[in-house]
Amino acid sequence: MSTFYEIDSTHISLKEFWWWYKSPRAVLICWLNQLLRARTQVSSDDPNTASTLPFVVEQLPSDVTVGFAALAAEITALGFLDPVFHIIHDPGTRTTIYWATYRHESGKYFARIHQRVWQLAKNPNRGTFPIFLTEFSDGYVCGFLRGQTGHGRSEDCEHEPHARGEVQRSVAKTSRAH
User: Fold this and answer.
1) CA distance readout (Å), 127 to 79, 122, 133
2) Which of 7, 38, 148, 173 is at a distance of 20 to 30 A from 77, taking alpha carbons?
3) CA 72 to CA 141: how far, in whole Å?
4) Using H for helix, E for strand and C for coil, what is the string for 18-71?
5) Which residues have a Cβ under 8 Å from the Cβ of 27 and sit 6 or more positions away?
């Protein structure tokens, strides 16, 4: 089994707390906890584990598969294939992350459908969304999450905000950035 790392909430920005809680009251409480160097319960979309390889599974639970179906159809229609599935359960944060990761037929990109369930949240299902990534020849990675650029050289990644489900435009932007 892989090692899970503790998330130190005293180093989390107010912007990140807002992403998690979306409540001024909750963010204020987190901010006050930070001032007092007290820890706040948090969960991240990025697995806080040394490796994700131990979490590869043959298939996802049926309810997750049903929730991924529409995005999976859009992704496969764009040439992404051979999904690899992960179920990453972190008992420390009471978070489970479900992934379906697809490689593009060109070998230049990959797409992932991502869902995070955080049992400590009022609404445990934190959402399902696509992520598109491509690697540059110098090793930098450009990613698109819900139509926004992610980590890497974001100044090199053209993007245009769009609603969930408009996968085609995000892939087109990814291929132009490569």
Assistant:
1) 24, 13, 19
2) 148
3) 22
4) HHHHCCHHHHHHHHHHHHCCCCCCCCCCCCCECCCHHHEECCCCHHHHHHHHHH
5) 14, 17, 18, 21
pLDDT grade, residue 146 (50/70/90)? Answer: low
Residue spans of the domains in the chain: they are 1-42, 53-177
Gap between the Cα atoms of 167 and 55, Å rounded: 26
For every residue of 148-163, which 3-state class applies, written as one string?
Answer: EECCCCHHHCCCCCCC
Residue bearing tokens 């959402």? 127
Q: Is residue 122 exposed (0-12), middle (13-18) or buried (19+ Cβ within 10 Å)?
A: exposed
Q: How far apart are CA 137 and CA 73, in angstroms?
A: 29
Residue 107: which residues within 8 A CB-CB, separation 6 or more?
none
Q: How far apart are CA 145 and CA 82, in angstroms?
A: 21
Tokens 């807002």 belong to residue: 18
**pLDDT tier at 145, thresholds 50, 70, 90:** low
Distance CA 54, CA 34 (A): 33
